[in-house]
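Researcher: For the record, we're logging two predictions in this thread. I'll number them. Prediction 1 follows.
Model: Prediction 1, sequence and structure:
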Amino acid sequence: MGRLDYEKGVLRMLRDIGKIYNIFRKPLIIAGVGPLEKVVRSLNSGVIKYIGYLKPEEVPILLSRAYAVIIPSYTEGLPSVYLEARKCGVPYIVMYSDNPLSKWLADITLKA
């Protein structure tokens, strides 16, 4: 959910879709719009389902049906999708990078 561009880690997530699918055996549902929309749309298949733009009131509905939320962003400090997932009680997967959220989660995980 969100802007489909390089900084959000969309290409990295798509590159690793096979690994992700092998773990969960569930289709990856991608919601959002942006510069990489055509790339995502072209990969629409049984493994990837592209649903486009979501209205704000549709976000909790989609999250309530989600098995997990993947956060692949390279740059965000505290992405709204992370907050939405937490609010809905949905597990989240943060693909490690040099962003503040990844570092913070790694830090609290190591201390736990």
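Researcher: Logged. Prediction 2.
Model: Prediction 2, sequence and structure:
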Amino acid sequence: MKLPEKIANYLQLLNIGYAAIVHPRTGSLEQIASHTGIGLERLARAAIFEDSHGLLMAVLPASRQVDINALRSEMGRPELEPAKRETIMALLSDCAEGAIPPIAAAYAIDAIVDNRFESCDEIYVISGNNESLLRLSNSDVYLLHTGSWHGDISMLGKPISRGVTRELVIPEKIAGTLTDADRHG
């Protein structure tokens, strides 16, 4: 199990200790959690967004989805949209497709970390290689995100596949699909 070069270098630079948790290749974070016995609320994943200000990585529990309205509000960036697949692939050229490590500084981009990790002693992060997770202490995760924003940017949602395209729920679009009967019970 080899870590992506940028992740390995960044962990070494900050002298961050970690344990690698090997898992079989799977199609979803839910399957990884099931195989490893790690709760989705302690498994960190990332989604990458962009606007005219540049790229932004949102780091959140695998049990949750990005709340785009909350993200835009927290960041004061109303035009944030999911980054294009090609942009993500170019940025994470040393990673396996769909395996986005939630360590933004290794790739020199800004990040916001969901507040829901505050109560976790240990956090497991996608390593970037489709074969392992990294177990980190909570304090090391916050050290890796020194200078990042922190906020409530997620909402409950069905765990998603590891692909780079299914990262976003826009509440107003969902609300627009409801009938009056759905709204009123």
